[in-house]
């Protein structure tokens, strides 16, 4: 090989080596200061509590402070704006659910805001399924009864949710679409108001997570007709799936909560955060603490997380368009 070519090859090899060394040094040095976890959820909510558990464990692992900044409201835009202003260096992370990622772009079309064009996925956190809840005095014993009532009385059955475009709202639209029925959506300002209203018969039914419905359920004023998931929940093995209760098997209403970072986070830093978060969530003691909220910690690869969020986006896009839902 001519000397000039050898010099070029040597220079390229050295450059690649320097880049690899710099990347390794960057990842190995991370974090060198406080990491802030922004969240779209309010203080004391289930996602907030488990995020604080994660922050505490990461702080021990990283030997640096990891703090939680709650920025609820605005459909998630307040938290996204706060986190999005920070550098893409891994020191600002953001907790969002799958609706912030997959439904928001279709609900606010005029804003032309696509969440995954602004943020990179960093790590999945947990999954939570939704129950179909009715009041204790409801005449319905299963999903067959609910669907039959909706078909008998079009546009008269009501279902509640905590806001327009929530999983509870879109899940209701999905059930109506799958069964060829029409029901009236009633949004509430507070989750506590919603399930009290279901218990009192002010609305006929609602979707709800286990932690949000459990206080009223445990009081005996709420019943679960089914879980909108492919399998029964280990904490409620007597509650059938929607399919087992006579409803459409395709109905799978859930929320996936993840950590994201401003677009452009270095891959090596992202990979370190992913590995460390996954390690924390795999700890048996941490999993038990998540069980308190019936949240399932996740260890999916980022490619699988993206695939699931994209599938949700496609489903939500059709539901939102067909129902004419807009928050612009």
UniProtKB/TrEMBL annotation:
Pfam families noted in UniProt: TctC
The organism's place on the tree of life at top rank: Bacteria
UniProt cross-references to Gene3D superfamilies, sorted A to Z: Bordetella uptake gene, domain 1 (3.40.190.150), Periplasmic binding protein-like II (3.40.190.10)
SUPFAM superfamilies associated with the record: Periplasmic binding protein-like II (SSF53850)
Entries under InterPro entries matching the protein: BUG (IPR005064), Bug_dom1 (IPR042100)
Signal peptide bounds: 1-25
Presence of keyword Signal: yes
Alphabetized UniProt keyword annotations: Signal
Keyword Signal attached: yes
Family matches, as PANTHER family: BLR1237 PROTEIN, TRICARBOXYLATE-BINDING PROTEIN
Assigned protein family: Belongs to the UPF0065 (bug) family.
The protein's name in its UniProt record: TctC
Naturally occurring in which organism (per UniProt): Bordetella genomosp. 2
């Amino acid at each position: 090989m001519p000397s000039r070519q050898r010099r070029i090859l040597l220079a390229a090899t050295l450059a690649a080596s320097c880049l690899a060394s710099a990347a390794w040094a960057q990842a190995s040095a991370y974090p060198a200061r406080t990491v802030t976890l922004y969240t779209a959820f309010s203080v004391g909510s289930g996602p907030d509590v488990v995020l604080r558990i994660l922050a505490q464990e990461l702080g021990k692992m990283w030997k640096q402070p990891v703090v939680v900044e709650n920025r609820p409201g605005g459909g998630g835009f307040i938290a996204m704006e706060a986190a999005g202003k920070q550098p893409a260096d891994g020191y600002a992370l953001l907790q969002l659910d799958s609706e912030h990622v997959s439904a928001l772009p279709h609900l606010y079309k005029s804003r032309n805001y696509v969440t995954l064009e602004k943020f990179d996925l960093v790590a999945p956190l947990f999954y939570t399924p939704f129950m179909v809840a009715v009041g204790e005095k409801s005449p319905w014993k299963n999903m067959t009864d609910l669907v039959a009532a909706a078909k008998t009385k079009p546009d008269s059955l009501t279902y509640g949710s905590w806001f327009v475009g929530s999983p509870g709202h879109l899940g209701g639209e999905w059930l109506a679409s799958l069964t060829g029925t029409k029901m009236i959506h009633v949004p509430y300002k507070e989750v506590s108001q919603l399930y009290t209203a279901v218990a009192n018969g002010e609305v006929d039914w609602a979707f709800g997570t286990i932690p949000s419905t459990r206080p009223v359920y445990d009081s005996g004023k709420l019943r679960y007709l089914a879980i909108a998931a492919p399998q029964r929940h280990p904490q409620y093995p007597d509650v059938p799936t929607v399919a087992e209760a006579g409803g459409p098997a395709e109905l799978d209403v859930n929320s996936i909560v993840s950590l994201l970072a401003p677009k452009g986070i270095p891959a090596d830093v992202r990979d370190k955060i992913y590995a460390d978060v996954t390690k924390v969530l795999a700890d048996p003691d941490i999993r038990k603490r998540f069980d308190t909220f019936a949240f399932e910690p996740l260890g999916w690869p980022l490619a699988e997380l993206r695939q699931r969020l994209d599938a949700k986006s496609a489903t939500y896009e059709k539901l939102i368009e067909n129902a004419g839902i807009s928050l612009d």
